[in-house]
Write a structure and sequence with these properties.
Mean pLDDT: 84
Shape: globular
Strand order of the largest sheet: 3-4-5
Number of strands: 5
Radius of gyration: 16 Å
Number of domains: 2
Oligomer: single chain
Number of helices: 6
Amino acid sequence: MRQNKGKTKRVPTIFDIINLREKDILNTIRKFSKNPNRCPYCGSTKVVKFGKLRTDDIKIQRYYCKECHRTFNELSGTPLEGVHSIKNALLVAYFKLELKCSDYAISKALDIPYPTVRYLSNKINNNTKFFKSLLVLIRSATSL
């Protein structure tokens, strides 16, 4: 448990993250993400749904902007943009932020290629607040 100005915030354990499905993680992210009905490129609200990206057990909504004519998905504009496995990103964030492991140790422990861990680690280092908040949200979602 972590103490923060009188409030107790519990971060998830490694087992909480491993037992989660990508679908559950995505639903938790949806709860605290910014308005997906705004284009991350031009800021327009003139967007329409434009199909879904389907991978394994998750479906990510795609959008089309009528102003700049670009497509984006609900993870665009977040630190998880371009990440192939949300679960792996969370596991790396847990090892990096909570256990303070090196990228090499994370790669060996999770059996994820080192370049992938390095890529995710850079995203985590540049968006530490986002990932810490996400870990706390995952913990609250798993303790229900």
